[in-house]
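Dear Dr. H.,

I hope your travels went smoothly. While you were away I took the liberty of generating a structure for the chain from your last submission, since the lab meeting agenda had it listed for discussion. I wanted you to have the full record in hand beforehand rather than looking at slides cold. The sequence, exactly as received, is reproduced here:
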Amino acid sequence: MGGDWTVLNSLIPAISGLGGVALGGWLTSRREVGQEERRKVRETYYLAVLVSTHLDRFVSECVSVAFDDGTSMGQPAGGDGQYETTVTTPHFDPLSIEVDWKVLPQDLMHAILRLPYKVESLNRHISAVGEFDDPPDYAEFFWARQYGYAGLGLDVVQLSRTLLSHVGLRPEPMSFDKDWSAERGLRDRKAVLEEARAASQARCGTGLTGDFVPSDVGSEK
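The corresponding predicted structure, in token form, is as follows:
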């Protein structure tokens, strides 16, 4: 019996040592997990603020395109009475923004990183319409361009709002005037373009032309 107690007494320090090592490892692991979680929160907050600023700038550019009818000071912007664009199309390059995209939920990250493709898709459609349009006003081209970017701008307004809401921030209206905002301007412009298209269709008694918008572009109603 005495031998058993001797063995047990010799094992107690070893067991205690192993328990201490295990506890120390667990505490270290928990500390590292906590640090990673705090880092992710900081990175996500920073990403949301920075990227939403870029998205808001993109929306502002969409507003400019939505109101570009090819004229300047009420006259055709091009030579020989030709209508031509007066503002460049919006550009968004998310991969040039130095943030950790992996901190976002997959669906939100996908929606933001896919925006350049949506722009390319819309631009291809607009170019295709322009190839078969008639001078000097190129009415179908400008309708497709204005309508497409009005819809895309509204989609990006919602995307920016979703991004800010993800980190608990309250989106602020993009406006310098309490009676106007980029979102309201785009909605109003989209409605005007739809009404003009419907009136033209009624006058001509023909089907719509040049009004196709890719299914994932300008889908906001």
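Two observations you may find useful: The two ends are 86 Å apart (CA to CA). Confidence is low (pLDDT under 50) at residues 207-221.

With kind regards,
E. W.
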